[in-house]
Amino acid sequence: MDSQIKIKVRNLFFSYGSNAVLENINVDIRQNSITSITGPSGQGKSSFLTVLNRLWENIEGARAEGEVAVNFGSGFENICSKNYSLSLLRQRIGMVFQSPNPLPMSIYKNIAFPLKLIGEKKNRQSIAEKVKTTLKRAYLWEEVKHRMSDDAARLSGGQQQRLCIARALMADPQVLLLDEPTSSLDETSIDIIEQLLEELKQNCTIIMVSHYMDQVKRIADQKFVVSNRQLNPIGSCPVTR
Questions:
Q1: 238 in any annotated domain
Q2: What does residue 85 show for φ and ψ, rounded to 5 degrees?
Q3: Nearest-5° angle of CA 63, CA 68, CA 72?
Q4: Structurally, how many domains does the chain consist of?
Q5: Is the pLDDT of residue 120 over 80?
Q6: Residue 24 — left, alpha, or beta (φ > 0 → left; ψ -120 to 50 → alpha)?
Q7: Is pLDDT at 1 greater than 70 in this prediction?
Q8: Rounded distance, CA 163 to CA 135, Å?
Q9: What sections of 18-117 are H helices per DSSP?
Q10: Domain range spanning residue 226?
């Protein structure tokens, strides 16, 4: 069973100050799958994502307890440990937010930026090839290949979201977190991104917050709903205690 599991969450509690958001969460996330998290607004869906890459540590008053163990290829590692490198964690676990957030720079520099951030040393040709390959993975290359020096803010909303997904993929993450990635997009853009996610799960484990049950039914392999501070499976999602 463990060979099919990417992430084990055990006895997870999360709060903002005295406000408990998640209590005693125990779930397994299968590798190479799309896992959806649904539920009413303000119930802790996005908070759960922030625990998985420790983004919560930047929020005043936030507190997490418990264990999140991820198998990056050499056994399960507790990423909640203070000794676990944040830079390494965020290289391995990428995140895309609800609203597209292109950096104030060109399309090319937006995609190449993560390589600079993680200190990866490549020559210009190697970087250019990786940018091209990643944009192709995000179904964006054909739309932007002749305008790579343009300001990324000039892209449409759907293109900006695919740009942000491509940027997250540049570090070759093993896990990709998506917080309402299609909430403000038109139907055509939603279709493209759903197709993209179906492709990406062949090499990546995807966890996606979504309000759209039709979308969840279309693409999610595992489904959870957040309610009363619990993360409950929809359908059969066995957890090994």
A1: no
A2: -60, 125
A3: 140
A4: 1
A5: no
A6: left
A7: no
A8: 8
A9: 45-52, 86-92, 107-117
A10: 2-233
pLDDT in tens, 23-37: 999 999 999 999 999
Whole-angstrom Cα distance, residue 241 to residue 233? 15
Q: Does residue 122 belong to any structural domain of this protein?
A: yes
| Greatest C-alpha distance within the chain | 52
What CATH number is associated with residue 25?
3.40.50.300
Q: What is the mean pLDDT of residues 161-181?
A: 95
Inside any domain, residue 166: yes
| pLDDT > 80? residue 64 | yes
Q: Which amino acid is at 207?
A: I
Amino acid making up residue 80: C
Beta strands 230-233 and 222-227 are: antiparallel
- What lies within 8 Å, CB to CB, of 203 at 6+ separation is 32
**Which tokens is 141 given?**
């290359």
Asked if residue 240 is part of any domain, the answer here is: no
pLDDT tens sequence across 177-227: 999 999 889 999 999 999 999 999 999 999 999 988 999 999 999 999 998
